[in-house]
Amino acid sequence: MLIEQRNSLRGEITLPGDKSISQRAIMFGSLAKGTTEISGLSMSEDCLNTIDCFRRMQVGIQILSDSRVKISGRGLYGLKASPVMLNAGRSGTTIRLLLGSLVGQRFPSSITRDVSSAKKNMSMVLNPLRQMGAIISGRGDGNICPLNIMPSKLHGITYEPSRFETFIKSPILIAGLYSDDRTSVVEAVKSRDHSELMLNYFGANIKVDGLKVSSRKTGELYGQHIHIPGDISIAAYFITAGLIVLNSDITIRNVGVNPTRTGILDVYKSMGAKIELLNKHTVNNEEVSDITVTSSPLKATVIEGSLIPRLIDEIPVIAIAACMAEGTTVIKDLKGFKIKDSGRIKCLIAELCKMGAAAYETEDGMAIEGGRPLKGTVTDGYNDAAIAMSMAVAGLVADGETMVRKTQILEVAYPDFQSVLSSL
Asked: Of 243, 264, 410, 419, which residue is least crowded by CB atoms under 10 Å?
């Protein structure tokens, strides 16, 4: 992917539907009685895998034009055993949400993942489900795909995940729809609440009391009309570009601005960013807004604590903004999160330094000394969508041309990224 330095970005764009919300709309629509119509659905590989899994359990799902989907739901207890093993592909979200519903079914099932993901240990998700009474077996002490799930009687539990385990909240709450008494998750920090909001929209009884979220056995969910807002995790790249490229003015239409996902907006405003939320409204319990961004002189900040879960996916592109800010930006408390432990921070820093940035890894995060001019060069996207798109944004303000290699993942994650960027 070749990126040239730009002296202005202007225009209006609309982005694909939020993938996290799309996944839940497919699942809850399949588990609901009646018809669910979804518009703006993300047609990502992950969502298509979720659709395939429910089709194999005899849910009628029609993919229509213009990112619309019609689901003939079978109800919480109406799924049928798949004649073949379910495959969640590369999606961690798909397999986690599916496990939450499969443990409550009256038939045995089996599920696996793409070869590249199947070896991952699933114990963090499986342990609380087993505490609820779920019977799950697999390779590697029962925690590695393929996983086999047997019918069982579920009972409620109270589970307290660490701040690094926020992803297990939804499977527990979904399993709680089938349990014989109340199931609660007491969070260390507030995490994404798309499951709670959408389940209640479908008719569930999810209660939220501060950091405690509870579900209980539900008679049925009922089909709804769902509109998926634009994905703020994708909007983050265009927001950042609009801030750091001079003479820019960008409007992004109909973006989901759920408070559990808008940490990046809070950080940028603290750095002096000119960002406005216009036309605010609520759609199927989710907050939605147009976002207008104007190029802004940014000042360094410290990002830490409870902010981290609200912007964990956007850290690579926030690092690009920090390169253009006055002063040293410090990002703390990443230790224990995948972005740190997997070496992604190390990769990101290596590429920024190639472009002339002053960035370095710390014990629990990273630091970026802003204000140094970036220079175009050949960079590596590591076939990681967040790093690839972040390096492209850096290329917009780097002197000359920037070549980002190993970006094939964008064909799956967001194939229109470069064309939308070029349209501004």
From this structure: 419
